[in-house]
Amino acid sequence: MAGPGPVTIGQALKPDALEAPIIEMPMVEIEKVSLWYGEKMALKEISMSVPKHRVTAYIGPSGCGKSTLLRCLNRMNDLVDGVKMTGSIRIGGTDIYGPGLDVTELRKRVGMVFQKSNPFPKSIFENVAYGPRILGVRNRSDLEGMVERSLRAAALWDEVHDRLADSALGLSGGQQQRLCIARAIAVEPDVLLMDEPCSALDPIATAKIEELMLELKNSYTIVIVTHNMQQAARVSDHTGFMLLGELIEFGVTRQLFTNPREKQTEDYITGRFG
Amino acid sequence: MSKLWKSGEPFIWLTGGALAVALLMVAGLIALILYNGLGFFWPSNVLRATLADGTTMTGQLAEREPVPGRAGEYRIKMKVGNRDIYGADFRWVDENQITRREYPAEVALIERSEWGALIGTIKELRDGGRTLATGPEAWVDVQRRLPEVTRIRREIRRIETREIGGINYQQEQLRLGLKALELKGITSGPEVDALKAKLAPLQAQYKVQETRLVELRKSQTATVLVQADGGKDKEWPLALIVDVRFPNTMGVAAKTVYYAGRIWEFVSDEPRESNTEGGVFPAIFGTVMMVVIMSILVTPLGVLAAFYLREYARQGLFVSAVRIAVNNLAGVPSIVFGVFGVGFFIYFVGGSIDQLFYAEALPTPTYGTGGILWASLTLALLTVPVVIVATEEGLAAIPRGTREASLALSATKLETTLRVVLPAVMPSILTGLILAMARAAGEVAPLMITGVVKLAPSLPLDGYWPFLHLDRKFMHLGFHIYDVGFQSPNVDAARPMVFATTLLLLLIVVLLNLFAIGMRNRLRRRYATSAV
User: Which ipTM value was assigned to this complex?
Assistant: First the structure.
C-alpha cells in the first residue's frame, strides 16, 4: 500500500475495519490512569483496552498526553523524576505496576520505537543483535539468523545485507528508523509501541513503514501515536482521540473518522483546530 | 572607517595575526632547542690558536660574542678540555690576541670516563713500563685496541651491576627474612637454618665474581701518553678512555656516523660526571614508566568518578558542588600536591605499610619514603580533574535517546552503561588521558619531593621478584634538566646538555601523545559519534 496519502479520510479506510468488533482479546487494559509531572496533571483518568494483534492508534494535538500514555505502557516514565501515577495498567493480565515486577521482564514483552531514530553507535549487525545478546544469546549463527529475520521483517535486509559491519549511523533517516524497528522486533515482544515513528521521514520511507506495520500486526500487538490523521486512518484498526490529557473518544477507526460521537473529535478531524 | 570595520577585514587580520604570533613563538622555541640541542653532538673541528704571547690554545669553538665594553672586538670561548691539567674545561680568548689559526690533523679528541675530554697529540702507547708504539703508529694502535677496551669495561660494569648487584639483592632479602623471624622471636630452628643455608652459596658466588673483576681490571694495563698545550704531558690509562677521534681528519660522512653514534649513546647510556656527560637512559626509563603507572592509576579513578557524577547521581546542589570542587582542583599549584603526597602517601600510608609488611627493614623505610609509586599517585591526583572533565563532556554528548533505546530493549542500567555508553565514550576518555599525560610529563615540582633523585642506583624494573619495584626512587627527564642546568658544578659543559635533554623530553611527550591520538582516531572511526 505505497503511494501518496488519500484525498479524503473515507477513502483511506480499509474495507474490513467495519467488521472488527470493538474489543476482542484485550492485550492491554488501562483503567482510570492519571499521571502528574510534579504539579501538572498530564493524564486524566484514562480507561481503555488495546486489542491483541491489531493496530491501535492515538491521535490528538501536541501536548495532549499521547506520548506520555505510551511511555506508561513500558514504564519508561520511571526514568523521569517527579512522576506520580494512579490507576492500573494490565498487559496480558499482569499488573505492570505491581510490587515486585521486574521492569526488564516487562520491557522484553513490550518493545518501543522512538520518534527520533536512535541507533547505537555500533555496526548494523550489532544494533540488531543487541537485544538478543541482552537476552543471553551467544551463539554466532543463532544471532546471525535472528538478525536476518528481523531485518527482513523490517524490510531493510535487501539494502544492508552486504554491509552489516558498517556503522549504523551511516544509514539514511528512513533506514535508521527501520533499523530501530528491526532492533525492537529482534527480541520478539508481544506488544510494540511506536511513538510517531514516521514524523522525521519522507513519504516513501513513511509508506514503507506503514506497509511494515500492516504485516507485523499478524504477530504483534501494535500501539502507535501519530500526529498524522491520515496515517492513523490508513493503518489502524482502532483509534483513540486525546485532548489535554483526556481520552475523548475511542473506537473502531472507520467509525471514529466517519461518524465520531463527540463534538471535539469531529472538530479535530475536520481540522477546526490542530 | 566604520565601513572598513564592518567589512570584516580587520578582524580577519587580527585573528590571523594572533594565530601567526602564537605559531611563531612555538616555532621559535622549538628551533632554538633544536639548534642548541642537536648541535651538541656534532664533532666540530679542533682549532689550534697561537696567541700573541707565543702560547697555543687547542680546542673546539663553543661560542663567539662581542667583548663587553669594547665595540667591534670579539672573543671566542673554546672547549679546551683537560680539566685535570688546566682546572677548567672552557676558556675565553680575545680574537685580537690570536696570531695564527690552524687545524692540525694530528690533534686527538679523547673522551674519558672521568674528568671529561682530553685534547692533545698522542705521543706514545705504553704498557707497564714499555713503549709499544709512538707517533702515528700509536694513533692507529690506540683506535684498534679501543673496541676490546670498551668490551671489557662493559663487562666490568655488567658484573658490578647485574651479577654482584643481584647477589647483594638476594643477600639483602635473606637478611631481611632473618630479621623478620627475629622480630617474631624465632632466632633458631629449621626456618632460620634454611635461610642461613642459602646465604653460604651466595657468598661463594660473590667471591667468584669478585675474582673475575680483579682479573679483568688487572688485564687492562695499557696507557696513553698525550701531549697537551704548553708542553704538558699526561699519561692516561686506556681502560678509562671511551672514545678517540681525530676531528680534523673526519669528513662529513664520518662525522655523521659519529654523530649518530653519539645520539644513540645519549639515549641508551647511563650518565657520568655528575650528569653532565654520558647518556640519560635511566631518566627516559623513569619518565616513561612513571607516566605509564600514572595513566593506569588515573584512568579508572577519573572515569568512574565521571560516570557517577553524570549517570548515577541525582543532579542537584550536591553534584554541582562536587563538580565545582573538581574543576578547582585543576587549578591547585602542583607543589601543593607534592606536599600532600609527602604528608599523606609517604608518611601516613607508606609508614603504615612499612609497619605492617616491612617491619624487618626498619628503621630504613621501604614505602615510607619517596618512590615511583607515590610519585605516580601524586601526579594521578594532579591530573584526575582533567580526565573527569573530558569524560563528562563525552558522556553529555551521548544523546539521551541512545540510553533510552537500550533500556527499552530490556537492558538494565548497568548493561546500558557497559555495553553502549562505555564504548561510545572511549574517545573522550582517551582525550582526557592525552591531556593528563601531557600535563604529567612536564611537572617536576611535586616529583622532587615524592621520589625523584639525581642519580638512581638501579631501575624500577629488573629481573628479580617482584620485577616492578614500586618502592624504588627513579630518575626523571624534567628533573634532570633542572639538575644539569642549575645544580651542576660545570655549567659551561652542562648547558648544551640541557638543550639536548629538553629536546628529548619534548620528543617523548609528542610520541606518547601521538600514540594516544592514534588509538583515539581508531576508536572514533569505529564508533563514529563523539563530540570531544
Answer: 0.86
